[in-house]
Amino acid sequence: MPDKPIAIRAKDAPPRARPSNYPPDLVARIGAREKHPLGEFFGLRNFGVNLTRLPPGTASALRHAHALQDEFVYILEGTPVLVTDAGETPLAPGICAGFPCGTGNAHHLVNRSAQDVVYLEVGDRTRGDSVDYPDDDLMVRPDAEGRARFLRKNGTPL
To answer: Which residue range is the domain that position 79 belongs to?
Structure first.
């Protein structure tokens, strides 16, 4: 198998095959979001980087908060709305936001505009993370090996 190139145009990285790992009853909430996993393309193991496109009417994720993993976004194109526990904040190209782990401040981006939103998202890959989704019947908890598992809030596995 040939070696991967040392550098590429970010948009040329193959898009993620599945739009989401969310359960089928919730995946439609993010719409036609498209992620190009740049970190995986280059074999990065400690943190992930995605070039993400949100068409009008889509969301980056379900609103969520990580216990162990930090996240960061940098807006390249478009005008998404950042929704957090503190309310809504309009974003634009050149604006960035960071989400420290363990704060419980749930967040996501929503594209309510008529144009695509394009942004970079960066997050670490700390094993054993828990994720809470305050607006949905969903949570992530680690299994015995530290792998993320989706559960309903009552603990029922998905």
So the answer is: 10-128
